[in-house]
Design a protein that fits this description.
Strand content: 5-15%
Helix content: 25-40%
Order of helices and strands: HHHHEHHEEHEEHHEEHE
CATH architecture of the largest domain: 2-Layer Sandwich
Largest sheet: 2 strands, antiparallel
Distance between the termini: 92 Å
Radius of gyration: 28 Å
Oligomer: single chain
Number of helices: 10
Number of domains: 3
Number of strands: 8
Structural class: alpha+beta
CATH topology of the largest domain: Alpha-Beta Plaits
Length: 267
């Protein structure tokens, strides 16, 4: 036999043997070290929406399912699934009906549209709030919405869109309180309010009223008229801005009526 052909045949046989041994070794290892799945965890996972949004505090739905089965997390932890999912999981685990607190929704605490709030300069860069902040932010208000929709891009549930006035609009029926928009907002002006809330302070400024008058038509001027008009005592001033205690608010709308700049609005 030609020596060259013999070398080729030996090489091919060697490779075939090595491949077969490697395959057998991998098959053995996968069987030996495979992670056994808990059937109950799999059933709980099947009830979760599998959005993997992280709103529950766990990195994934499988991690939450494991925590629920282990008793380290409550079925109501899944904000996306809501009350219906929580009760299905509780029933599966034999824990009875869940007590679900009032649903919260995200709200943009700013009414400063491109028309009502002045600008320092005309920005022509990447349409992103973080990007415009790198050059100082183009809005005169240092606390207001930048109007470039970074929060909208972060929402995985189609619960946000940019309004015609340049402000992000949140659909309360689609908001699942995942918190992605809150994290994405560089100005930190998106917060949770009860879905049943009837009024909101559409401002986040901490500047004094005299300055706010110069830069924004709808900004809070710290006149305190709302605080005085609120009979239940649901409004207190904090850093030149009224804060509503929704546990005390009776939705009498007196604060809306007396607000001279229409910063407090009915929703």
């Amino acid at each position: 036999m030609n020596p060259n052909i013999a070398i080729i045949l030996i090489s091919m046989i060697s490779l075939a043997v090595i491949g077969a041994l490697s395959g057998a070794l991998l098959a053995f290892a996968s069987e030996k070290f495979k992670v056994k799945k808990d059937p109950l965890t799999e059933e709980v996972l099947g009830l979760l929406p599998r959005a993997n949004c992280g709103a529950c505090g766990y990195p994934s739905c499988i991690a939450l399912a494991e925590a629920i089965v282990a008793g380290k997390a409550d079925p109501v932890a899944c904000k996306v699934g809501g009350e219906s999912t929580a009760n299905k999981i509780a029933e599966k685990l034999g824990r009875g009906k869940c007590e679900v607190k009032e649903r919260m929704i995200a709200r943009v605490f700013c009414g400063g549209t491109n028309e009502s709030c002045g600008k320092k300069f005309e920005y022509n860069g990447i349409p992103d709030c973080d990007a415009v902040l790198l050059v100082g932010g183009d809005k005169l208000c240092e606390y207001g919405c930048l109007n470039y929709g970074t929060c909208v891009k972060a929402c995985k549930f189609d619960a946000m869109k940019m309004g015609a006035d340049g402000l992000p609009v949140i659909d309360p029926e689609k908001c699942v309180t995942c918190g992605k928009c809150i994290i994405a907002c560089p100005r930190k002006i998106i917060e949770y309010i009860p879905k049943s809330a009837k009024v909101v302070v559409n401002c986040s400024t901490k500047d004094k009223g005299a300055y706010v008058r110069k830069i924004c038509k709808v900004g809070c001027i710290s006149c305190r008229l709302c605080e005085k008009a609120c009979a239940p005592g649901a409004i207190t001033m904090r850093d030149n801005l009224p804060v509503i205690d929704y546990n005390k608010c009776t939705a009498c709308l007196e604060c809306v009526k007396v607000c001279p700049t229409k910063t407090i609005v009915k929703i």
